[in-house]
């Protein structure tokens, strides 16, 4: 098992194997997102209180889930890079950050749009909203740190440290609705209880969440492969692969 995991730390192995997995995740993500979108927008019943405005949940919740998961994944990859000096982990952490920032912004923006008919305001300094805004700043900070140093290694180490320290914000986001008084609703999904939503409403949401995660995996594989080529372009194995492709 450890041998298999260690193989993914090889730029060549990652580049070759990800080429085989990438199309699968692109196809699955497309299928799930299209299915979830049509199901949620056209066939799921309207909410008895919010009417059709609740349907923004099919973008808001998957984006919020994914944003937090990306930061945790980025922090783990940063830990692997700092402790074991595995270059592919640093490449993966680098390419995750922009998508994480985008997903956090989508979650914040869609939540603000949803807040108008629900709370009567675009924004308030609610515990959940504030901690999500901090998450966006953490993503932007990680991205900025990588370009703030003349040495790529120094930038990678600084960004890795920020990612590992910043991961403490994730449980704050998750439990903010339990620890403080907040207008934000509790978690939509939990591992210990059935969703309060009717089945015909939360099933398309689950499909959308899975579709977003598959999209994240596919995009990360693709962008990490590009980063490998950028850093390893002068290595012999890269030249050999291009020769074989001709």
From TrEMBL:
Pfam families hit by this protein: Cytochrom_C_asm (PF01578)
Domain Cytochrome c assembly protein: 17-184
Subcellular location as annotated: Cell inner membrane; Membrane
Membrane topology: Multi-pass membrane protein
TM segment ranges: 21-44, 56-84, 96-117, 129-149, 161-181, 201-221
GO cellular component: plasma membrane
Chief location: membrane
InterPro entries on file: Cyt_c_assembly, Cyt_c_biogenesis_CcmC, Cyt_c_biogenesis_CcsA/CcmC
Keyword Magnesium: no
Keyword annotations from UniProtKB, A to Z: Cell inner membrane, Cell membrane, Cytochrome c-type biogenesis, Membrane, Transmembrane, Transmembrane helix, Transport
Protein function: Required for the export of heme to the periplasm for the biogenesis of c-type cytochromes.
PANTHER family, A to Z: CYTOCHROME B_B6 PROTEIN-RELATED (PTHR30071:SF1), HEME EXPORTER PROTEIN C (PTHR30071)
Entry's family note: Belongs to the CcmC/CycZ/HelC family.
Alphabetical list of NCBIfam families matching this protein: ccmC
Protein name stated in the entry: Heme exporter protein C
């Amino acid at each position: 098992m450890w041998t298999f995991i260690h193989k993914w730390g090889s730029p060549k192995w990652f580049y070759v194997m990800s080429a085989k997995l990438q199309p699968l995740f692109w196809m699955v993500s497309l299928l799930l997102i299209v299915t979830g979108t049509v199901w949620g927008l056209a066939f799921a019943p309207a909410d008895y209180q919010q009417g059709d405005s609740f349907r923004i949940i099919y973008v808001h919740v998957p984006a919020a889930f994914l944003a937090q998961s990306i930061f945790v994944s980025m922090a783990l990859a940063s830990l692997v890079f700092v402790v074991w000096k595995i270059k592919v982990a640093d490449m993966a952490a680098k390419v995750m950050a922009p998508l994480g920032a985008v997903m956090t912004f989508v979650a914040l923006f869609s939540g603000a749009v949803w807040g108008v008919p629900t709370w009567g305001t675009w924004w308030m300094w609610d515990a959940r909203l504030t901690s999500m805004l901090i998450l966006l700043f953490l993503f932007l900070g990680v991205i900025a740190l990588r370009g703030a140093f003349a040495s790529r290694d120094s930038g990678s180490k600084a960004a890795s440290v920020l990612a590992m320290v910043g991961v403490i914000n994730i449980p704050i986001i998750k439990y903010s609705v339990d620890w403080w008084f907040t207008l934000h609703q509790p978690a939509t999904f939990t591992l210990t209880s059935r969703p309060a939503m009717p089945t015909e409403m939360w099933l398309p949401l689950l499909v959308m969440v899975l579709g977003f995660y598959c999209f994240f995996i596919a995009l990360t594989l693709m962008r990490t492969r590009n980063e490998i080529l950028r850093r390893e372009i002068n290595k012999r194995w890269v030249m050999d692969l291009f020769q074989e492709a001709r």
